[in-house]
């Protein structure tokens, strides 16, 4: 913009050189208004352009940006950015110091499995988090004690029911053929229900050791082989998980039984991916009802509601499999294949 104050300041100097009239001097400055610091010689900042008419010619002078001002501005910006980076770094360290114990506490709680003691990492924590950890450990101990008492009670009930069921089976032998077969079927159903209930409860109380799933899957399929419901096995070698062998065998056995009983066989695939062990069964049956996919794996939920206890089981097989999978750091997923049939995918944590 035009700087008239600069023109008035330069006018005496130019008149001493016979410059002419004042309107022959034009001055422009990038600074708005007069200089902020008033001294004997005003300090001019920014870019200045001066045009002076000398005779029939115009002389134009233009100043360049001051190196000192540029360096000062760069130093100022660098200082501001440095202070901002220092503040952000301190804030990050404080936030990290607060959240790291919480993260360790969450990892410890996540790594705990049903039936196994909940433990706190040995790293030092704040008194508040220590109190929280102690409360969680106490809560976990009470839960494990409750499960232990529940399992003991179920085992006692199963034992007490075993003797009357044996007497009923003995007495059923004196019945006629149709009545004897129906009675024996009911007795077998009651024994299976008791056994599955015990397996569901005991799946949360077990020891843990490295287990190789490759020979286990082959052994279960070989033992349960049925020509009318064949099962194909595609299992990678050396797939190991940390868990309870009997519980894992029960998981595989339940999936095999479901394929043979309700789907005329199928295939089992075992592989490892992204630090997880994947066990997927694909059957040749009609598939799961779409409205039941979210409920599968819950106790007493059958894959086909039209089945009764005699034709469709008691609805505990998938519930037992899900409980075992979750205790081993994984879970169960269900779905239907596009080409027909259902699939059940088990995810387990790899052995360390």
Please count the beta strands (DSSP E, at least 2 residues each): 10
Shape: elongated
SSE-based structural type: alpha+beta
Question: In CATH's first tier, which class of the largest domain applies?
Answer: Alpha Beta
Catalytic activity: ATP + protein L-histidine = ADP + protein N-phospho-L-histidine
Enzyme class: transferase
Main location: membrane
InterPro entries: 2C_sensor_his_kinase, HAMP_dom, HATPase_C_sf, HATPase_dom, His_kinase_dom, HisK_dim/P_dom, HisK_dim/P_sf, Sig_transdc_His_kin-like_C
Account of the 3D structure:
This protein is α+β, with helices and mostly antiparallel strands. It folds into three domains: 2-62, no CATH class; 112-205, Helix Hairpins (Orthogonal Bundle); 207-351, Histidine kinase-like ATPase, C-terminal domain (Heat Shock Protein 90, 2-Layer Sandwich), CATH 3.30.565. The protein is built from eight helices and ten strands. The chain has helices at residues 4-15, 67-111, 127-172, 177-202, 213-223, 245-262, 309-312, 317-327, and strands at residues 25-29, 48-54, 57-62, 209-212, 231-235, 240-243, 266-273, 276-283, 331-336, 342-349. The strands form three sheets. A five-stranded mixed sheet has the order 5-7-8-10-9, with helices on one face. It has a three-stranded antiparallel sheet with strand order 1-2-3, with helices on one face. Helix 3 (127-172) packs antiparallel against helix 4 (177-202), helix 5 crosses helix 6 (245-262) and helix 6 (245-262) runs antiparallel to helix 8 (317-327). The longest helix is centred in the middle third of the chain and has 46 residues, at 127-172.
